[in-house]
Amino acid sequence: MKNFAIPILLLFSMIFISCKKEDTTEPETHGTISGVISEYATDSLIYKATVFTNPATSYVTTDESGKYKISNVEPGEYTVTAAKTGYDTLTVGVTVIAGKTTVADFILHKRDSLADENYGAISGTVYDANTEEPISRVTLYTVPSTAVILSDEQGAFDFERLSPATYLLIARKTGYDSAAITVAVEAGFVSQANLSLTPSDTTEPPQYAKLEGYVLDAVNGKPVSRALVSGSPSFGAVFTDSTGRYVVENLQPAEYQISVVKTYYQNASGEITATAGETVTLNFALIPTTGNIDGTVIDTTGAPIKDVIITTTPETGSFLTDDNGKFEIENVTAGSITVNAEKSGYVSQTVGITVEAGLTREVVIMLRHE
Questions:
Q1: What are the Cα distances from residue 59, in Å, to 31, 70, 81, 150?
Q2: Average pLDDT score over residue span 284-289
Q3: Is the pTM of this model over 0.90?
Q4: Domain limits at 311?
C-alpha cells in the first residue's frame, strides 16, 4: 500500500499558507459617544432631546427611539449634556477612546410648569433682520449654560425653569451673523427676548480695477480705430474699436503709465491710479502727423480730365483721376510737396502746395492740349 500522508500534509500546508492574508486595516483614530434618553418615572423615550459636548464636537438630537450618536470624536475627556424643553438639563463626564463607543444614557426629570415660584423663564422669537420673517432651527443657548435649543417653525423658543440670574442669550444659524442679548430672569416671571439675525455678507471684496476711454482725432474729433493702448507696468495691450473705445478688464490695483500708438499720429500717454472695484476713465486726443490732398484736373475749358497720372515729390504713390477728373491722396506727411499731373496729348503740369497735419488741402490742376 502506498503512503499518501506526506503529499496530503503538504497540500494542507499550501492551503493554509495561501489563505493567510496580510492585515492592512488602519487603526481607528476616533471614537463615538451614544446613548438613550428617557423620562424619569414613566421610562418614556424622549424624542428630539438636544445632546452636545464640551469641548464642542457636534449638536445632535435623539430619534423617535430616544437614541443619539456623536461620531468622529477625538479621544479624550468630555462632558456630555442632554437638554429638552420641559425637562431638567443633565450633564455627565465621559472618556472617549479611539475605536470604541462610549455609552452615556440620560434619565431626565420632567418639570411641573413655568409658574414654579422658584424659577423664571425666557421666551421669544428669532426674526430675519431684513425681511422681519421668523427664522426656524436657530440654535440658542445661554451663558451661564442652561440648555441648547432650536427655534420652532415660527421662530419661537422657550427656556424654562431657569434660576434667577442675568443671562447672555446667544443665537446662531448658518448664513447669518450671530446675535446676543442680555436677559434678566426673575423667579415666577417669563422674560421676553426677541432677536434679529442679519444675513451674512458673503460677497467677496473686489480685487481688480477697470480702465476705459476713447481715442479721438485731435483735429476733427473723429474716432480713431485700431489704436494700440498699452501700459507700464504691463497688462498686455488692447485696440480701440470702430468708435474709438477701448476697455481693459481685471486690472491689478497700481499706478500705471498708459500709452497710445497709431500710425500717422503722434504718440500719446497719460497716468492713472487703478483702485480695486473702481473704473478709471482716460480719454486721448491724438494729433495727426499727416494731411490729405483732394485734387481735380481740368482742361482749359474747365472740363474734367480722367485717367490723368498723378505723382508727388516726396513720393506718395501713383494715382489716376476718375471720370470727374478727381483724385485723393491720404496720409501725406505734413510739409511742402509738389504734385505732378501728366497725360498723353497734354502738357504735363507741376504745382507746389503745403500740406498741414490733420487737414485736407484742395488743389486744381489745369492741363493744356499739346
A1: 16, 8, 10, 11
A2: 94
A3: no
A4: 290-369
